[in-house]
């Protein structure tokens, strides 16, 4: 079996085991009309089954204390501070019946960042540790229970709702949605960390997390790859802003090889991508001075082409905890690339260059690399990913270049065209060419690039780079051209469109 087939097989095995019963349900839910089930509005249906563990110490052994609606003395015992922020953390579906290891990381990161906040872990393990459709069936009641708790805090302590933030992972994101829908008033913020997809994709807003559930709803989507018609993380945008790191599908560092080397378990591949949302959020809490930016774009393909690196009119935002609330703007899709590990943030550059076909290059299909030289550091050679297949000749091409390390102000760019001998692909191309023209020396294709216009996503600075040697702007396979900032070019708004 080749690599892709193997991956697919594993995925199907896991997904089928996890969600087999969900598949049928989803179809039914999607089709049926809304009519939410009648609910007992006292919200006490679960009667103590949901536990509210208020964390008092970073020490994991320390149990903290429990809030109980109706019991005033608990508030005092827990040191609940109604004027501070109140952050509820809500887990998702579980097979183990225990908190997963991310929970401690997230709690610790929230407490370090917001030392005065009331940090409450919502424990609905008993209802989450069931067949997936049954756990889904409990999300509404658990949400109702949380709403009742918050209502009680409002009555008892005049808890300001705008300072309430619910953070829900996977199924917990939809629990948060229900809580926001049922609470009296409007909660400040809900963050959905890769909200669950099966049985929620495509259903009406009242049955899943949606923008109306809080004043601000932000969502990270990290596992939206589909198999058997379901995706573990929901694919559709369901918040005010929806951020899709790495397009929301393949997360760096989660490839089969990477994960197997560490864990040796196929399930870990799925878990790695689904849980990545939590780790990105933890990263955003801890690395305040190195924020990751996401950029609004209509889709992943346009983003990968480098078209969407604008911050004008709120088109970019910080990710995770640092996400800024924006004017109500539903389902705004945003993208970024990340590193494979914490700190996840990297640096995005848009590069635009006009590629002239000078000689014999009609079928040259060049493979470019760029090496960036910065004030602090240089990058390795970075493959220029032409998203829709080929460099356009006699056209202006736009690329996205991502660097993992900060290099400081960009000083120099080296553009190289991979030589014939450097890849099997080009060797094969060459053999074919030579075969057809065996008695003539294959002609050397020549392209010309005079300038590269660069925009740095993180700083929004724009520069134009010109050939370092004005006489050396042509490039052939195996060669490179070096560009430095144009002398006139701290620029940059050319009055007229330059013939580049
Ligand atoms: C409660 O929180 C507010 C706001 O964070 C803070 O100013 C105040 O000192 C806190 N009170 C106590 C008793 O910790
Ligand atoms: C969901 O729970 C209700 C009771 O709360 C039950 O009547 C219903 O059959 C359950 N639905 C599913 C799909 O399990
Ligand atoms: C690009 O323009 C050159 C002339 O400037 C021409 O010879 C060549 O065929 C054009 N190539 C393409 C792909 O349009
Ligand atoms: C420069 O970048 C390399 C990777 O390209 C990295 O290993 C190195 O630590 C960086 N140096 C500094 C000073 O950031």
Defining key terms:
500 residues, alpha+beta, Rossmann fold, Lipoxygenase-1, 2 domains, eleven-stranded mixed sheet, ten-stranded antiparallel sheet, 10 helices, 23 strands, 23% strand, disordered C terminus, binds 2-acetamido-2-deoxy-beta-D-glucopyranose
Task: Please provide a written account of the structure.
With 500 residues, the chain is an alpha+beta fold. It has two domains: 51-256 and 265-336, Rossmann fold; 347-485, Sandwich (Lipoxygenase-1), CATH 2.60.60. Helix content is 28%, strand content 23%. The protein contains ten helices and 23 strands. The chain has helices spanning 3-31, 72-78, 101-113, 125-128, 132-157, 171-182, 256-263, 266-286, 300-304, 424-436; strands at 51-54, 65-67, 86-90, 118-123, 164-169, 189-193, 216-220, 226-227, 230-231, 241-245, 293-296, 316-318, 332-336, 347-359, 368-374, 382-383, 395-403, 410-417, 446-448, 451-456, 462-467, 474-475, 480-485. The strands form three sheets. It has an eleven-stranded mixed beta sheet with strand order 2-1-4-3-5-6-7-10-13-11-12, sandwiched between helices. Strands 14, 15, 16, 17, 18, 19, 20, 21, 22 and 23 form a ten-stranded antiparallel beta sheet that branches. Strands 8-9 form a two-stranded antiparallel ribbon. Helix 5 packs across helix 6 (171-182) and helix 7 packs across helix 8. Residues 377, 379-380, 405 line the site of one 2-acetamido-2-deoxy-beta-D-glucopyranose.
């Amino acid at each position: 079996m080749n690599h892709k087939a193997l991956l697919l097989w594993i995925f199907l095995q896991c997904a089928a085991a996890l969600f087999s019963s969900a598949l049928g349900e989803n179809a039914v839910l999607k089709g049926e009309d809304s009519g939410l089930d009648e609910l007992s509005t006292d919200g006490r249906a679960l009667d103590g089954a949901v536990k509210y563990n208020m964390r008092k110490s970073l020490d994991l052994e320390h149990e903290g204390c429990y809030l109980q609606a109706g019991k005033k003395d608990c508030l005092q015992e827990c040191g609940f501070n109604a004027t501070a922020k109140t952050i509820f953390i809500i887990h998702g579906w579980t097979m183990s019946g225990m908190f997963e290891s991310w929970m401690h990381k997230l709690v610790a990161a929230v407490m370090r960042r917001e030392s005065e906040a009331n940090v409450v872990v919502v424990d609905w393990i008993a209802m989450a540790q069931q067949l997936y459709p049954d756990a889904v069936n409990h999300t509404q009641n658990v949400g109702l229970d949380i709403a009742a708790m918050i209502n009680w805090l409002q009555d008892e302590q005049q808890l300001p709702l705008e300072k309430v933030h619910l953070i829900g992972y996977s199924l917990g994101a939809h629990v948060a949605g229900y809580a926001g829908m049922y609470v009296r008033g409007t909660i400040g913020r809900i963050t959905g960390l890769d909200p669950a997809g099966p049985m929620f994709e495509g259903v009406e807003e009242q049955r899943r997390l949606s923008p109306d559930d809080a004043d601000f709803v932000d969502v990270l989507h990290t596992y939206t790859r589909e198999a058997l018609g379901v995706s573990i993380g929901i694919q559709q945008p369901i918040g005010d802003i929806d951020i899709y790191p790495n397009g929301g599908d393949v997360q760096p560092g989660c490839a089969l090889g990477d994960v197997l080397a560490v864990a040796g378990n196929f399930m870990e591949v799925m878990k790695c991508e689904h849980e990545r949302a939590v780790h990105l959020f933890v990263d955003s809490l801890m690395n305040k001075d190195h924020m990751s930016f996401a950029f609004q774009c209509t889709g992943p393909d346009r983003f990968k082409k480098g078209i969407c690196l604008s911050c004008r009119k709120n088109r970019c935002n910080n990710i995770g905890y640092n996400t800024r609330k924006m004017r109500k703007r539903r389902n705004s899709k945003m993208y970024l690339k990340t590193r494979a590990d914490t700190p996840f943030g990297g640096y995005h550059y848009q590069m635009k260059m006009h590629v002239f076909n000078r000689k014999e290059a009609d079928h040259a299909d060049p493979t470019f690399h760029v090496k960036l030289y910065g004030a602090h550091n240089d990058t390795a050679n970075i493959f220029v990913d032409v998203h829709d297949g080929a460099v356009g000749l006699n056209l202006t091409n736009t690329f996205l270049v991502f660097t993992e390390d900060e290099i400081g102000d960009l000083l120099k760019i080296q553009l190289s065209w991979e030589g014939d001998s450097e890849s099997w692909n080009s060797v094969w191309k060459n053999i074919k060419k030579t075969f057809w023209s065996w008695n003539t020396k294959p002609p050397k294709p020549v392209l010309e690039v005079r300038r590269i216009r660069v925009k740095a996503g993180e700083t929004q600075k724009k520069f134009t780079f010109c050939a370092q040697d004005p006489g050396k702007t042509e490039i052939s396979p195996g060669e490179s051209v070096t560009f430095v900032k144009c002398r006139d070019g701290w620029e940059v708004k050319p009055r007229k469109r330059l013939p580049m």
